[in-house]
Fold these 3 entries.
Entry 1:
Amino acid sequence: MCKPKIVDVVKSGKVLISDGAWGTFLQQKGMQPGECPELWCVEHREDVLDIAQGYIAAGADMVEADSFGGTCFKLEHYELADRTAELNEAAASISREAAGDEKYVIASIGPTGKMLLMGDVTEEELYNGFKEQAIALEKGGADAVCIETMSALDEAELAVKATKENTNLEIICTFTFEKTVNDDYRSMMGVSPTDMAQAMIAAGADIIGTNCGNGMKRMIDIVKELRAVDANIPILVHANAGLPKNIDGVDVFPDTPEDMANLLPGIVAAGANIIGGCCGTTPAHIAALKGAVEAL
């Protein structure tokens, strides 16, 4: 029996729980600075699988994949661009194994690090890079892609377009926003949540949202702005465990699982439909969010 689409589940009124941070757990398992995280999908498969299984066991309805830096543009830094399809397919297949038949895989697609504005890359090159990654993620068993941590409209639009035109995957697109001195929110490239929502809906995203950059408390205002643009589109939030504090040279995220869970009713009331974590979050945070959803 086929699973319903994520969009349909959300529109039925259910609040879904996503997963949390990945990078810190790869480091805990021994990944060294300068190593390629995506290469771990073939060289340390069981370690990557254990991360995904940890989030599923914590109650997540969906799990990402170790594919955030999986475009050929990022992989070329490790001289692995010719293995783009292989590594992305492997990443999705690991999360598929962890998720089983009932949970969802929302495989990650991150920024390329290239800027159209600066002439680093052409639109065709970006499109083809995202196309290659998305096709491989679908082949590996992903249900959706999570085009995340975006800051520029043109890059995100091409990622959405390439996925939509070449796969049957559901498309999630999230931007990272920071609070400005004017007490509003903008991405690194000056994009507001309103700008982002309008552009990504027009591009064909099925789900929009925000990730990283803020703890759950600040995400509430961002979600309200997104929701004001469209009353119906599902909204996903992957919040950090608070704003990091540098202690002895190490970034420490202060929000406990209970802190995040206590803020969940407020972010649901603001309009969020899918809630998970980003930097600093753990399976314990996801379990607490799951409990808070069940208590609603």
Entry 2:
Amino acid sequence: MPVSTCVFDAYGTLFDVAAAARAASAEPGFEVLADIWPRLAADWRDKQLQYTWLRAVTGEHVDFWSVTQDGLDWAMEAGGLDDRELRERLLALYWELPAYAEVPAMLAAIKEQGRSTAILSNGSPDMLQAAVDSAGIAGMLDVVLSVEEVGVFKPSPQVYGLVEQHLGSTPAHTLFVSANGWDAACGQAFGFPTVWINRLGVPIDRLPERPAHVMADLTGVPDLAERL
């Protein structure tokens, strides 16, 4: 069936989640990060995601900003970092995450094809709006959808159901794109044709469903949408 809508995860898919730690490491006063920022960024992201899953399972929902702070606190302690000023700077930078280089042209190409575009993210609405505005891509998106509307994180089917509710696009007509392998797999199980953006070349997750397509970056998404 032809694709009428392209829906994107936000963090790690459109926006570079490692950018906050990388940028801070280059700022005066935070030289301690010079050699360890990649590990800090990876630990921060891993814990952030783990806390969303645990809260979804236990039913103890908080917004994404809370799990983002909790994940950073764990990562800083694991790295032996006890610096409140550094913590506040890293959190501030998270509100200004840049988009990956190919994102503006990719979104523009999809819009030129006449397709709808959307974000579907664990992020809270204010965080997502800040990221979209900072990256300058607001005009290329029809809607930005947050899990806060249903009060549970991905991969709950309630989250994926927001696409049809807001855009009227059935799963079969919606291309879902995520840099999280588990997200792409669960979206596939929901009924979306999905793309996993595997920037790091890691193995595929062992889950009941697998993404229909795998790409190294977002460049090929418009061409794929044309072919489906």
Entry 3:
Amino acid sequence: MEKKEVILTGDRPTGKLHIGHYVGSLRGRVELQNSMDYENMFVFIADAQALTDNFNNPDKVRQNILEVALDYLSVGLDPKRVTIFIQSLIPELTELTFYYMNLVSVARLKRNPTVKSEIEMRGFSDESQEEANFGTGIPAGFFTYPISQAADITAFKATIVPVGEDQKPMLEQTNEIVRSFNRIYGPVLIEPNILLPKNSVCRRLPGTDGKAKMSKSLGNCIYLSESNEDTHKKVMSMYTDPLHININDPGHIEGNTVFTYLDAFCKQEHFSLYLPEYENLEALKEHYKKGGLGDVKIKKFLEKILLEELEPIRNRRKEFEKDIPYVCQVLKEGTEKARAVAAQTLSEVRHAMKIDYFEDEDFIAEQIKKFSQQ
């Protein structure tokens, strides 16, 4: 029988989830869930990791636990088929992180491009990130973020991790840790494979302002749960082509956020529904590049497509918001189930490292023999 996959992925609860999360991972998670071609699927709320750079604002993390859970349920994740859990309620993950720290050098952590970019974005230090100054204002917990992520993945023996492209260096470092552990202690851990969205545009959706990444901290997001009115305002103010001043001016597609979003969301049937004068997206792009097509018309088209996708999600969320005890129960039961799995892996890790002293009958027998001969 062909071995089925174990899937693991998650999000930091630093705010409500946005459409960058949706096209980058959430939509793919639901497709994986519905495929049923897996043994287990774990989706977690990474509150412990969120505290690494929000340690002085725990209420921010606390208040967003249910926001993220509601987003999970509203996009279509089904607790009957997916285990949804809270990271900090599984202490086994912390213990695994501690053991893995011995397998990673400080120099290797410094080279992780995701860590470096996140440090720069969050402004932990105003000093140069040259060797002498790197990390002067960084909490140690944030610096070791890749090790914590390796613990999350390996605790559940995940074989597939659906993430955005920015997380690729994290998966590479996880596999380095797995290989080091298995070489030193024995073949206990499993190397995961990264699963990126098939549509390359979805791997890193830019912000509405044209910035390289949609980010809550930059305020350039369209949230899954916001109102249609707010979505309208954000779409109509989106960054397009600064040189496309008049309708008749030739327009540029590259770097034009509206067209990037159309690449991520638009389907062939949208044209017959909302813009029948064009056969497809390529025809729309060609007209824009030649000139004679205004930005407002394209934005209105995009808005209709986004609302078609987001309205069912928003309606489901409103229903789940009426039954918060149910949402809490989903998290509680999922966390209990996930902890049992993580505990089993930790037991195997401790045994391989020969630190399960009083569970190892051979060790106890050896000690009895040793001291009886003295």
